[in-house]
Amino acid sequence: MSIRKLRAGRVSGVVASEWIGPLGTIFYNELTGTLRISDGVTPGGQPLQLVAEDFAFSFGDFVATTETTAPFGATLMSAEINQDINIVSNGTGSIHVIGQFDVYKTDADVAGALASPPIFSVTDTGQVQMLVPDANTSEGAVTIVGGLDGVYQPPVNSGVMLHITGIAGTPGVPSRIYNDAQNSFAAFVARRYNNTAAAPSAVLDGEEIMRISGTAHNGTIIPGSGNQRIIYKALGNQTLTNQGGSMEFWATPLNSIIISKVATLTSAGITLESGKVLSGNVTIGSGNTLDVTGATVTGLTLGGLNPADVAGTMTGTTIKSTVTGSSLTSVGTLTNLTVTNTISGSINGTAAIATTVTLVATNTTDAAHYLTFVDTVTGNENVRTDTGLTYNPGTNKLTVGSINTKLFRNSRDAGTIAAAGTLTLDFSTDDLVHCVWSDGMTIAYQNFTAGSVVRVMATKATGSGTDSISLGGVTAALVSSGNTTISSQADVTVFMEFTCIGTTIGTVYVKL
């Protein structure tokens, strides 16, 4: 190898960008000061390469050196102590960093700074890691502020990892956090372990796993405790075979600053704290129970029923004495009924007995068990067992004889039917129906019930002239007059009797 000694000399009358020069000659442009080296071929020469390992050099306030001890590397720093370094793009140009990017704590010694893990790191595959061991009550580990002024309310409690301040405005802009999942679910997962990250241990019974809290500014400060919160707790010491957990719901009453627990949710259901209220519609799934032991229940509906009517949907062998005002209509496959008190009321809207009575079996051995009426007012007995109630255990039927008591029928006043209006008869509930009509009326039917008879009295309104009633779908062959319409005049009442022997309109007969 050979070397070339540097010797200054001036060449006049040449252009630096065009001059070729002898091979190995170093020259520079007097106007720009740019150093070039001639390769004996290229006009303007080649750039002169300065190797940092050979010497330290400075340009502007930058000093470039090469570390000769571990950790080895090229170093670029400011020349003055505590001097800022600005990397500025030119116009709209971008600043690009290629490769892994690490930021270390400030240290006077480069090797000393690099000896610790980076406090901010971006790998060449995009993973970002931050080390913030000193998150305190004045600022969080990561703070995102929706404004160029950088103003935010500092955290109240220490340990804040992420602090977001929304965009200011009047009215304000909601501060939102989106977690979009593609072709899968989006999860918010809180994990807790005891001890350390290097040696984690199990979470114990009753320890909090996660807390969701909402806190409002009170006009003076933002309090350290929330207005309401949801707490996730461990239920039992956590093991490989126990992952039990519960959720607690806390709220602050109106005109109070004391937050208190309202209810606890576990796999067994919801438990209200003492004095708390469960209101609104409550649905209890099949196979589950609602335990209100020791509680006062008001305004509660079960399947749309008032508690006073809930006996209509009860199952079992007994109805507790606390159930009152029941409108029980069906007892399913009842085989034995024990009544300890007096029975009174009506059957299908018709008074069963003029006075309150008690049914007493006259024997227990015959195939037919005759029942005797006992009037609880007079104490008199109706011993005409041949015409009374007879129960046949073989057929499980109760037969009603010619009882010497007055029966009453259920009646309904349908009011005034509008012109060209419709009167709907319900074969499951109607018995006697009265209405007033004027200009044309149609009879309609619902809930066809075999054996049901409905009597209708339709009075033509005063001054309404003459018009007709349509029997609405009943064929002429099933009407006593042979017609499907009935003509009437003002101040006249038409009597109609509808007998249903099946479950369709084709089984309805009409007698006029």
Distance linking N and C termini:
136 Å
What structural class do the secondary elements suggest? mainly beta
Shape: elongated
Largest sheet: 5 strands, antiparallel
SS field, number of helical segments: 1
By DSSP, the count of extended strands is: 34
Computed over alpha carbons, the radius of gyration is: 48 Å
Question: Hey, roughly how much beta strand do the residues contain?
Answer: 25-35%
Low-pLDDT parts are: 351-358, 383-387, 402-406
The strands making up the biggest β-sheet line up spatially as 14-15-16-17-18
Helix fraction, binned, reads under 10%
Average predicted confidence as pLDDT = 81
Could you characterize the architecture of this molecule?
This protein is an all-beta fold and 512 residues long. Among the domains are: 30 residues, no CATH class; 33 residues, no CATH class; 77 residues, no CATH class; 55 residues, no CATH class; 101 residues. Helix content is 1%, strand content 31%. A five-stranded antiparallel β-sheet has the order 14-15-16-17-18, with no helix packed on it. Strands 21, 22, 23, 24 and 25 form a five-stranded antiparallel β-sheet that branches. The chain has a five-stranded mixed β-sheet with strand order 26-28-30-33-34, with no helix packed on it. A hairpin with a 5-residue loop joins β5 and β6. The longest helix has 5 residues. The protein is elongated. It starts with 25 loop residues before the first strand and ends with a strand. About 4% of the residues have low confidence.
List keywords for this structure.
five-stranded antiparallel sheet, 1% helix
